[in-house]
């Protein structure tokens, strides 16, 4: 969810009047915004779905698909739902304003425009949207480790699993669990446990690829989605994480090493839930056969022994 600086915002103007497009272009471009135009509701929706802009200015009075119906369609499409819409109309009847706002517009501006007011309203809408984006992103980040959290995993995993199936691309899932973490917490205290969780998250982030999605699953459990990777490749990545963690020296307990166990499974036609269960089962095998190792689902015999 990239935050776009205000100066580079893209604004889509949906209006049937060529004059309005000329005016908007001339009066808004000076703000550093990129102004795109669509001359009908249909064209505007198409344009917005293809490349969601930062803001839409939508005329209510258009032939065929009017602004209300256009707005309704923009708000039922997940791609365009988050884009703030300012509706504009020559009709300033209260029921029109109410209808526009009820349908999900963030603001209502009367034609003819006072451009300094319109610019200020656009700036305000972009500012609010940036804050919403930031909050939405923060709601998906684990506070202690800075990794994605469980909510993000749940949302992304099903999306990536479905995408990989459609594209016929491999996708792997790795579950990791810190070994005997409770005992470390009990012996050295929770602050020591937090240091371990944070350091493990750093190791994980530094080793996984840019396209991988590393999440804190809960407690001392982590999960990584690896798009494009077959289980053997995913296991190689996890093996590097495992080795790096094992090599860490801890200032609070230099005599006690910390290790983790890993279960890796492919995400295939059996679906996301089955893959999660398979990775969890492989993790269980890693635990029950001595911990500090990476086990691929179905690979009971060929355990990667730890150093
Ligand atoms: Mg019109």
Based on CA atoms alone, the radius of gyration comes out at 26 Å
Order of helices and strands: EHEHEHEHEHHEHHEEHEHE
Question: Which distinct ligands sit in these coordinates?
Answer: magnesium ion
User: What is the CATH architecture term of the largest domain?
Assistant: 2-Layer Sandwich
- Can you count the beta strands? 10
Q: Tell me the number of structural domains.
A: 2
The rough form would be described as elongated
Q: Spans with pLDDT under 50 lasting ≥5 residues?
A: 1-6
At the fourth level of CATH, the homologous superfamily of the largest domain is: Reverse transcriptase/Diguanylate cyclase domain
Please state the average pLDDT score: 92
| Structural class by SSE content | alpha/beta
The share of residues in helices is: 40-55%
Number of DSSP helices? 10
User: What is the strand arrangement across the widest sheet?
Assistant: 2-1-3-4-5
Query: Given this structure, which CATH class of the largest domain is correct?
Result: Alpha Beta
- How would you characterize the largest beta sheet? 5 strands, parallel
**CATH level 3 topology of the largest domain:** Alpha-Beta Plaits
How far is the first residue's CA from the last residue's CA? 39 Å
Portion in beta strands: 15-25%
In summary, what is this structure?
The chain has 307 residues and is α/β, with parallel strands linked by helices. The chain is built from ten helices and ten strands.
